[in-house]
Amino acid sequence: MSTLHTVAPIARNKGLSLPLYGYLLILPALGLLLLFTHYPALATVWESVFSAARGGHPAHFVGLDNYRALLDDDTFMLSLRNNLLYAVITIPLAVGLALMMALAVNRRLRGNALVRAAFFIPSLLPMVAIANLWLFFYTPQLGLLNQLLSFFSLPAVNWLGEPGTALYSLMVVSVWREAGFFMIFYLAALQQIDPRLAEAAEIEGASRAYFFRRIQWPLLMPTTLFILINASMNAFRIVDQVIAMTNGGPDNSTSLLLFYIYRTAFSFWDLPSASAMTVVLLVILGAIALIKFNLLDKRAHYQ
């Protein structure tokens, strides 16, 4: 018996129409969504059009002045550029590595479960543990990476202390952490593909590359879109890794958007400017979601 047939008699017994009864059922979840998601977003937009209350002077309406000030904020523009570069590099690398790992462990091989666990463990570790692990790798002179460089008689590199390498060093950590998590989704999607398709391709003499390109990849497109939207959101929401490893330095070379919002709000106590930055971040995330749902979904192949 369907859920609709179960709910309809209950609604009639209570003298309620079926749509109204349905709205009452979702009211608790809807209330929490409005309270903890939509209200903070609207409050942030409202805060962004007022000045900061300082020295006993109350806040007053300033319109779009806080947004105009962002265009003249060199640190904000640098953080935005850093974040865009961070997203452009880490998203395809993490997704591509996740796909390769999923294809590698999708076969029936000895020790496969151990390999899957090894790929997935980084996503389970807390960021503090991950930061300390990679700080050991990146430590000047004594770090593992510099020890390898010295083995080949190459000069040591201050990975997190040089503006030219610090941001890319953070990218490596993010890709290492997220690829294993995304691998689980790809692995689940691969195991849902009808094995008869692989058998038919083998009978026809199709190579593995051809089978992947013409069969597996189109069927993996819905999972890829899901992973892409999550990877994009993660790329613009990163803050704990920056705080734990570089604190935005050196010379703001690793300052990302959410980190700068956090520092503006809770170090400088400039809540209106932080709110304006948050609105910009919400617009970016909303644009990513719109592109996903209105453009990319139409190109996905669903089984």
From TrEMBL:
GO CC terms of this entry: plasma membrane
Membrane topology per record: Multi-pass membrane protein
Xref: InterPro entries: ABC_transporter_permease, MetI-like, MetI-like_sf
Keyword Transmembrane: yes
Transmembrane intervals: 20-41, 84-105, 117-137, 217-236, 274-295
Keyword list, A-Z: Cell inner membrane, Cell membrane, Membrane, Transmembrane, Transmembrane helix, Transport
Compartment annotation: Cell inner membrane; Cell membrane
Pfam families, sorted: BPD_transp_1 (PF00528)
The UniProt record lists the keyword Ubl conjugation: no
SUPFAM superfamilies in alphabetical order: MetI-like
Any one Gene Ontology BP term: transmembrane transport
Domain ABC transmembrane type-1: 80-292
Membership in a protein family: Belongs to the binding-protein-dependent transport system permease family.
Name this protein carries in UniProt: ABC transporter permease
Species, as recorded: Rouxiella badensis
